[in-house]
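Table S2 (text version). Query chain:
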Amino acid sequence: MHLFIKEPALVVCPKCAKPVLPHIACRACGYYKGEEVIDVLKKLTKKERKQKEKEIAAKEAASKRGEPRPEKSGRDQEKKA
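Corresponding structure-token output:
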């Protein structure tokens, strides 16, 4: 273990609730500051694309209904423990 190496500070993506580095586009959904900057579905096969679209639609429907987002992972849970 190196004394000066620190864990990277992560923030939660407002679109998909995945942990991402600050000031970096989310690799899971391709959004940055509310705009899609990376087309994540472009490189997927037809089957993978359909599955990803269903996941995104389900998350958007859940957020419109006001359901809570899944628990945050990573450093946030370690701090609570």
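Notes on Table S2: The chain has a mean pLDDT of 79. Residues 63 and 75 are 24 Å apart (CA to CA).
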